[in-house]
Structure formats: C-alpha cells, structure tokens
Amino acid sequence: MTPRQKRFWFITSAVVVLCIAAAFVLNAFQSNLVFFFTPSQVAKGEAPKNRLFRIGGMVKEGSLKKGSDEIEFVVTDFTSEVSVHYTGLLPDLFKEGKGVVAQGRLNDQGSFAATEVLAKHDENYMPPEAKSAMDKAALERASKSLKTNP
After folding, report:
1. b or e along 41-75 (b: 16 or more beta carbons within 10 Å of the residue's beta carbon)?
2. Angstrom distance (rounded) from CA 149 to CA 138
3. Whole-model pTM?
4. Nearest 5°: CA angle at 63, between 62 and 65?
5. pLDDT per position in the chain (150 positions), as tens?
6. Measured distance CA(121)–CA(100) in Å, rounded
7. In sequence order, what are the residues at sequence separation of 6 or more whose Cβ sits closer than 8 angstroms to the Cβ of residue 141?
8. DSSP conformational letter for 121
9. Which of 16, 77, 98, 129 could in theory staple to 36 by disulfide, Cβ–Cβ 3.0 to 4.6 A?
10. Long-range contacts, 51-55 (Cβ 8 Å, 24+)
C-alpha cells in the first residue's frame, strides 16, 4: 500500500469512529432529554403520552390526599389542573399553595404518575419555565375576563 492509500484509510476510519461516537452521544442525549409542560399545555394535549416529562405549577389548596404509600395532589397554573399520583416521600418544603415540579408520565386516565417531586426551596424561587408559564396563564385569564366584561 502506498503512503497515500494508508493516509486515506486512516482518515476514513477516523471519520467512521467519530460518526459512531457522535451517534452514541446524541442517542444518550435524546433518551435523557426531559421537557417541561404546564397544566394548560397538558390539558391541550401538547404533552407526550408515553414519554417522561416534567409538569410544574402550584399545588392546589385542599387537594393533597395522603394514603399509606400513595400521595395524590393537583397541580394548577390557575387556568387548568392536572391530578398527580406519587408514591414515595415528599420534600420537606412541599405544601399546598406552593410551587412544585413533578417528573413522570401521563397515564391512560389522563392523570400524571410522578416518579419524582421537587418543591421550591425558598419564597422567591420558581423555575423559570414555571414562572413564565404562570405569567402566560395569568395574561390569558386577564384577556378572557376583559373580553367577557367589556
């Protein structure tokens, strides 16, 4: 083999190895990607049915029901509500009327089966996605009330 052919095969094999490595990285990224949705987006059907995602909003007052192992509560953005079922220990800061982000999947009944529940860690913090979604929902409510009350 001439030096030119050796160089060609070396470059070709290096490109193939880089492509395979890139495919593995992109596959791992794709499988670990978790999107955030609000209760309004879930109610509109924008959330994936059989895929892991996060839902965020406020825990509705009076909606928390604790069983022996199972916990049920409602997440709201004050426009729509989604029932959340969770098995496990809740964070210490989890309370009704406070912000929450839950990770899980929608079940066949339309409620959210959470595998992880995160509570906000102080009075001023809310995840940016949840804050913008809550602001958007408030604007939609205000515009609807202006349309109905001229």
Report:
1. bbbeeebeeeeebbbbbbbbeeeeeeeeeebebbb
2. 16
3. 0.66
4. 110
5. 898 999 999 999 999 999 999 999 888 877 677 788 888 888 888 888 878 899 988 888 899 998 888 899 999 888 888 999 999 888 888 888 888 899 999 888 878 999 999 886 554 556 676 677 777 777 777 777 666 655
6. 10
7. 78, 79
8. S
9. 129
10. 51/105, 52/103, 52/104, 52/105, 52/115, 53/103, 53/104, 53/105, 54/101, 54/102, 54/103, 55/82, 55/84, 55/101, 55/102, 55/104, 55/112
Q: Amino acid identity, residue 33?
A: L
Please choose, from the candidates 65, 46, 64, the residue with its C-alpha nearest in 3D space to the C-alpha of residue 133.
Answer: 46
**Residue 84 structure tokens:** 């959340």
